[in-house]
Amino acid sequence: MKYKETGFRPFYHHFVSLPLKDSLKTAVEGFPGLKDANCILVYGYIDQERGLTLEILAVGKETKRGFHFADGNDKVRAFIRIAAVEEDDFSFFPDEKGELSQRYAAKIESLHHYDASEEVEKTRSMSFLDGSRDENCVDDVLVYLVKDGLNTEGCWTKITGLGDHWIMGTLLNEPYQDFGYHKGETIAFFVQETEDKKVICYSDMNPSQKLTAEDLEDGSMLEAAVTAFNNERSEPHLIDIMEILRDSYVWVPCTAVLSEADQKRMEEMVLKAEDNPEALIGQNFVAQDETRLIPDILQNGDQFFFPVFSTVEAMGEYGDHFSKVQKHMLEVIPLARNNEKKVAGIVLNAFSEPFVLDAQIWDLVEKMKSRIVN
Hints:
Elements (H helix, E strand, L loop, with lengths): L2 H4 L8 E5 L19 E9 L3 E13 L2 E4 L9 E3 L9 E3 L5 H5 L1 H5 L8 H7 L15 E7 L6 E10 L4 E5 L14 E8 L5 E6 L8 H4 L3 H12 L3 H13 L1 E9 L2 H13 L19 E4 L2 E3 L2 E6 L14 E6 H9 L5 E6 L6 E4 L3 H6 L7
Parallel strand pairs: 7-11, 15-17
Antiparallel strand pairs: 1-2, 1-6, 2-3, 3-4, 3-5, 7-8, 8-9, 9-10, 10-11, 12-13, 12-16, 14-15, 17-18
């Protein structure tokens, strides 16, 4: 078998034997057993910047009886970029009993430095993306940018995240036309099957309908967008929610924390009215120091969520226990990102018709263009 005939999967996180050709002998100097060796044992991993790479574990001898591999050399690091051996035949070792993994554990353990995020790892198992991948840098896919008035343009994009219905990536080259996005910026893209059954990646960059601040003021447009998405979980509905959220003001439930001096003053006021509690009715307490407002955090299983609401009324009875602060969504995202708990997402209207803005797409929402017209 040859690499180009099989794709990257037989190499990725697997053990493979390759012929020890002359061009590779310099790379294995210092490895035990080199004198009689005619093959090398490698383990495949993905360097996100350089692409599919083969870590050399040991040299070996292939005979009619099979393969025998010598010990490795943990003091020497040697690797091969896949392009150097893509035309070579190789033998694949499933290592079902884990013997090779145990024998060369130290060298394999050091490769965890190259581990990708869970979302990127999932995309590597999506075989339907293979037709769009770069042959060597498998996290780089060709995405077709679409915008009315412009020609469809292919742009290489590095996968950085994964949502329920979309993939996130960073543009690797500057588009020739003005799509409104540039090299290094994050885009969301989708997968579509064409009429001839070819699977492609595309990103619709048409600007959405412009809005005014008054359109979003009462939260009804945001609520309607969530309802539409929950009824039909399609790409246009998802983008609509994200764009409206990007421009919206939302309500954040917070716990008010008084300074020690103000807390003491309040306790003294309560104590003075201990014999006549009704005397407190109608009285106002004005804090003299700064009052800290700490956003509430909701928990679902092992995950934490930052709650926001389209209106005060959407909080229901839950809101009775909190102070309420209205903030722009672009102010909320940093609050959620910097929370002491690792927040999995921002949940909108958690107790009525919820929508979760996953943490991995906050960056995408922040970089979206505003739909508000002046």
